[in-house]
Recover the amino acids of this structure.
């Protein structure tokens, strides 16, 4: 659970509110979209932290703030102990060398009017101190080779490549400055499933080769599990549960994580019939009007009055603190507990087809 | 292992036009890993960029070559009209008014008995100068202001957008009558200045919209994340991707400016008679077009060919700047 290596990135109380204004000449703030509302995490050297959560929970905003593409409303980002939140100018440019981003959509993240050589070589033009002028071309070819592309294709344009190859180009550009941290914002969700695995395995190989730390953002739970050492689950601008991948996937204690995991499709028709699905009621509340106390309480089956009053802290729950085990990890819930049933076979006693409940039979949602 | 990866990627590289060739090329390189560019292209070790590739394309593009030759010819006769047109465009003989083609006057004579051929050749200088300078001025001013407004947004954008609204509200002919009537110089420059003043908002709106569209792309974010300066982002990433609509509008507007010069001259606020221009000749010939159509058709034809050449040039440049069309 604790970070085993020295931390490269420490994020504390990160907040991003987008103001909602009314009026043209006299702008008046009438509210705020609380895209990110107090996020803390630590990323160790060589570690992969996966961030999962549904659309609109603020994952991408966190990524943009780490890459200084958005300015945080509050909170701090520390890189190797140094606060880099408010940097600008030369100091910011120097920090950018160490934190690079891989984008979601390989079709819009590469300039269609630049050759691959120019795209991957641009980091060296922006940071001339990173590579001597005469050496850049060779380095670009090396990078293409490292990400599994043919270095002979250096003069081609992005549209001449497939989605997976384009994503490799994006990764090569991210690697050019030898950063220590790579923020990958849904790097494979725009790719075919067959290509996803190739790109994920490439990223895993590069991690050990270049000693990279990844912040890996995705909504695909199985991919996050595959690549991550630790996982953070986000809901409505906050991290609700974090732990190692086994702790989160096999012993979730937060109700939201439990519901999220129960929605993962099961590739076995028999197991699919008997597994228990937690179907949440209602929709995600609007980030302009976040519920008081625990922000998940409006959809939670465990909610009591206490949940409306107190914001649950992200810590090891008191009930689980005595018994060290995989369930004892940070979970922001007043009533955190591991799921009572071990899921797969036992529940045959209640065949879902005969219960007659609309949510339980047939193909069901999901 | 790397070879295998490459082959898999090659198998799905069927997106572009050269899908089959991509596949063959990557398989070949995967198996042999030999040098030599794919598709028999030039040495891959030599860096290429959008502009060098565009220039290579243009040199082989017949549309570009034809239009460039026409424009070159226009420039040459603007500089040295007397080489191909002996005599003065101002020496007219009323006795020959509206006459058809004759010796030394292959295009015939206009209503004042002037040689239409000589006047058409001499008129090129004024018309091409007005068209090209007004277009360049409008395109530069409009796209720079529009791009800055679109890129930086905020107050700058609001001010500029309201500014363009004001200029759009000025009727061209009325504005020309008012502004140009106070200018006494009989050169093309006040006319060009007036056209730039009234023409830039059109281009600026298009450039602004185009920049706003391009700015949202992830590659602009990626450049920012690398620490690229505003000027690098604007010049390297946004301008090449946003310039196409500006080129189209500017080349079409070129013809409008040559015609507008004629309108203003006809109204007596543009160039005055000792000057020679296609616009002046077209408007002078229009009252007796039924008696002497040749006096109208030759300068009008020259105007049409000029406009066509610039539009074709603009098209060719725009296509050459789009790697997807290669």
């Amino acid at each position: 659970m604790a970070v085993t290596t020295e931390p490269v990135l420490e994020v504390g109380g990160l907040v991003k509110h987008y103001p909602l204004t009314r009026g043209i000449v006299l702008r008046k703030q009438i509210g705020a979209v609380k895209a990110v509302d107090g996020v803390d995490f630590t990323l160790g050297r060589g570690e992969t932290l996966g961030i999962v959560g549904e659309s609109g929970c603020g994952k991408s905003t966190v990524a943009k703030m780490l890459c200084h593409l958005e300015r945080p409303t509050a909170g701090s980002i520390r890189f190797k102990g140094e606060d880099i939140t408010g940097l600008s100018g030369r100091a910011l440019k120097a920090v950018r060398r160490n934190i690079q981003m891989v984008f979601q959509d390989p079709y819009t993240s590469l300039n269609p009017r630049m050759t691959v050589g120019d795209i991957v070589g641009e980091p060296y033009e922006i940071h001339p101190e990173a590579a001597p002028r005469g050496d850049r071309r060779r380095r670009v070819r090396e990078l293409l080779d490292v990400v599994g592309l043919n270095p002979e294709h250096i003069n081609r344009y992005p549209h001449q490549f497939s989605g997976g190859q384009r994503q490799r180009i994006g990764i090569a550009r991210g690697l050019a400055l030898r950063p220590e941290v790579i923020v990958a914002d849904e790097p494979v969700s725009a790719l075919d499933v067959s290509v996803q695995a190739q790109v994920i395995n490439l990223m895993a190989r590069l991690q050990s080769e270049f000693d990279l730390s990844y912040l890996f953002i995705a909504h695909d739970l199985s991919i996050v599990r595959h690549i991550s050492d630790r996982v953070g689950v986000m809901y409505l601008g906050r991290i609700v549960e974090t732990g190692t991948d086994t702790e989160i996937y096999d012993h979730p204690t937060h109700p939201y994580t439990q519901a999220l995991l129960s929605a993962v499709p099961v590739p076995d028709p028999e197991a699919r019939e008997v597994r228990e699905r937690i179907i949440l009621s209602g929709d995600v509340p609007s980030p302009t009007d976040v519920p008081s106390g625990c922000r998940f309480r409006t959809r939670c089956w465990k909610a009591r009055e206490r949940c409306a009053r107190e914001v649950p802290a992200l810590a090891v729950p008191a009930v689980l603190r005595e018994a060290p085990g995989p369930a004892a990890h940070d979970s922001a819930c007043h009533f955190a507990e591991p799921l009572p049933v071990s899921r797969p076979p036992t529940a045959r006693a209640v065949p879902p087809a005969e219960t007659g409940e609309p949510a339980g039979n047939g193909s069901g949602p999901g | 292992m790397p070879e295998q990866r490459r082959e898999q990627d090659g198998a799905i590289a069927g997106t572009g036009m050269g899908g089959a060739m991509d596949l063959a090329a990557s398989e070949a390189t995967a198996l042999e890993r030999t040098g030599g560019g794919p598709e028999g292209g030039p040495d891959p070790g030599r860096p290429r960029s959008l502009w060098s590739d565009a220039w290579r394309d243009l040199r082989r593009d017949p549309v570009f070559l034809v239009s460039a030759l026409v424009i070159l010819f226009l420039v040459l006769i603007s500089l040295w009209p007397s080489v191909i047109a002996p005599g003065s465009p101002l020496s007219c003989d009323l006795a020959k008014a509206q006459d058809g083609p004759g010796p030394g006057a292959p295009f015939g004579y206009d209503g004042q008995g002037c040689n239409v051929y000589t006047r058409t050749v001499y008129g090129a200088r004024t018309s091409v100068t007005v068209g090209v300078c007004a277009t360049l001025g409008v395109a530069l001013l409009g796209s720079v202001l529009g791009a800055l407004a679109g890129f930086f947004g905020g107050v700058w954008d609001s001010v500029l957008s309201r500014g363009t609204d004001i200029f759009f509200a000025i009727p061209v002919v009325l504005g020309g009558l008012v502004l140009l009537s106070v200018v006494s110089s009989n050169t093309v420059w006040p006319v060009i200045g007036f056209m730039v003043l009234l023409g830039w908002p059109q281009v600026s709106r298009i450039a602004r919209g185009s920049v706003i569209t391009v700015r949202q792309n992830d590659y602009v974010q990626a450049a920012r994340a690398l620490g690229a300066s505003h000027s690098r982002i604007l010049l390297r990433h946004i301008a090449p991707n946003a310039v196409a609509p500006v080129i189209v509008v500017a080349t079409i507007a070129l013809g409008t400016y040559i015609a507008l010069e004629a309108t203003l001259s006809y109204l007596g606020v543009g160039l005055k008679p000792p000057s020679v221009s296609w616009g002046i000749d077209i408007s002078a010939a229009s009252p007796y077009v039924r008696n002497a159509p040749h006096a109208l058709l030759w300068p009008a034809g020259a105007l049409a060919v000029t406009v066509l050449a610039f539009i074709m040039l603009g098209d060719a440049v725009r296509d050459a700047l789009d790697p997807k069309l290669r």
